[in-house]
Design goal:
Strand order of the largest sheet: 2-1-3-4
Helix content: 40-55%
Number of helices: 16
Distance between the termini: 43 Å
């Protein structure tokens, strides 16, 4: 069995190596065929290829191109398509710079299409090989409270390629019975299990090499993002405070100004087109203004292209967009799906009210409702609100406030300029996927859910 597992891992590694080699080979051949004037002496060509490999490595890390087992095929192929677009645009610019003139774009487009065409079958093969080598684990869910159980089970069972849930057991059964179930399982999920019991079960899972997953509490999120300090021979966790990183915050603000100005200038034609489409659809203002909350609980006026009919809340009740909301106009559906309705927010970034990366700005009325159920929700305002961020990329419009809070706290506590750049690049993939804009269920005005009714 061990020999079979080792052979499978070698095959996976070789398959990934073939994928990388095919991408490089197509670029190398294409460069010589279409851009003979850019081929240099041996060392120069090696340098160009080295830069291509470096970009391939960085973009595949950003877009999770090798995320087999944790992403669907459609997502992986889209990731590789975005990787190759970024790499080839960079390489096209580099080659043009080296020969001091713009080289014909048709060659790089043919190279890009050929690379995507070869990537699709190879990634399908790697995906099949991965699941053949890593069949679904027998899994057990151990829970402490029932409130979130149905939703959590639904999330786990949707990962049918990775897990097969055989047992769902309450923490109230005897420790011996729990250990018995754990012994029969390859993966163990813990949902809101009491600390005293969780510690012992975790130690047992660690000892016997069980794949272990825990839905974290707020305090565990903070501990997980903490740094480690040593007082003599005693380790101590140190929670970070983004306010202390003045240098990073200054660089972040400079980036906000430069990027927002560039976007406003380069996409001014697109914003004008959207303004005309929205304005003349129903002869009402194209820009929608709404009060939102940013850093320190301060209120500001957020700008968006209007995607709903005028007086969408004529009953006076603040509410999030619902699924198939009849208040959305035909033009609004298009610009919401592609996130183009958020382009005017770059003016909010330019003014300093928002940042490009940060927690999504909530309406004060809805934020107050969330804080009644989750008092820690106000912690999101430790930093400026943002157009994109961890919660916007990995969450959805209708993500429950608790999960949204966890994602935002992870971002705040692990803040770095490099991470901001990575999140900006990942936002492109979210736009192409068109996911994340689904509204809340009908009958709800916010993303709060009565879990007891599920």
């Amino acid at each position: 069995m061990k020999m079979k597992h080792k052979t499978g891992n070698i095959l996976l590694f070789l398959s990934k190596a073939i994928l990388v080699f095919a991408i490089l080979a197509l670029f190398f051949i294409g460069q010589r065929y279409f851009y003979e004037e850019t081929t240099f002496y041996f060392r120069g060509d090696i340098l160009v290829l080295f830069l291509y490999v470096a970009m391939l490595y960085l973009t595949s890390r950003v877009y999770n191109g090798f995320n087999f087992g944790n992403a669907g095929m459609q997502e992986i192929i889209l990731s590789w398509a975005l990787c190759l677009i970024v790499i080839n645009v960079f390489q096209y610019s580099l080659l043009s710079l080296l020969v001091s003139t713009l080289i014909p774009v048709i060659g790089i487009l043919i190279i890009l299409v050929a690379q995507i065409a070869i990537v699709i079958p190879i990634t399908f093969f790697i995906n099949k090989l991965y699941y053949r080598q890593n069949p679904a684990h027998n899994a057990i869910i151990i829970y402490g409270k029932k409130e979130k159980l149905d939703e959590f089970c639904s999330i786990v069972t949707r990962q049918r390629n990775k897990f097969r849930v055989d047992h769902i057991v309450s923490q109230e059964v005897s420790t011996g019975t729990l250990l018995n179930f754990i012994n029969k399982s390859q993966s163990v999920f813990f949902l809101e299990v009491d600390e005293a019991k969780l510690d012992g079960l975790l130690e047992y899972c660690y000892l016997y090499n069980k794949h272990t997953y825990i839905q974290p509490s707020f305090s565990k999120i903070l501990i997980n993002t903490a740094g480690t300090m040593w007082f003599s021979n005693t380790p101590v966790f140190s929670l970070k405070n983004p306010e202390q990183e003045l240098g990073s915050l200054l660089i972040k603000r400079i980036m906000d100004i430069m990027i927002s100005l560039s976007v406003i200038i380069m996409l001014s034609w697109l914003m004008l087109g959207i303004w005309i489409a929205v304005r003349f659809y129903d002869n009402h203002p194209a820009i929608y203004k709404q009060v939102r909350v940013t850093k320190g609980g301060k209120l500001f006026t957020l700008y968006k292209f209007r995607s709903m009919r005028v007086n969408a809340e004529d009953d006076g009740v603040p509410r999030l967009t619902a699924k198939d909301d009849d208040r959305i106009t035909p033009v609004g559906r298009i610009i919401r799906k592609t996130r183009m309705d958020e382009l005017p927010q770059f003016f909010n970034v330019l003014s300093g009210a928002m940042s490009i990366v940060g927690p999504r700005p909530e309406r004060p009325e809805i934020a107050e409702q969330y804080e009644e159920t989750h008092p820690n929700f106000a912690f999101r305002t430790k930093v400026k609100a943002g157009i994109t961020g961890l919660a916007q990329i990995y969450g959805r419009y209708n993500t429950a406030p608790e999960e949204k809070l966890f994602l935002d706290i992870i971002y705040i506590e692990t803040f770095s300029i490099v991470e901001d750049i990575k999140l900006m690049l990942q936002t492109v993939r979210v736009i192409f996927q068109g996911s994340g804009t689904e509204g809340v269920d009908h009958g709800l005005t916010t993303a709060l859910r009565n879990r007891d009714e599920k």
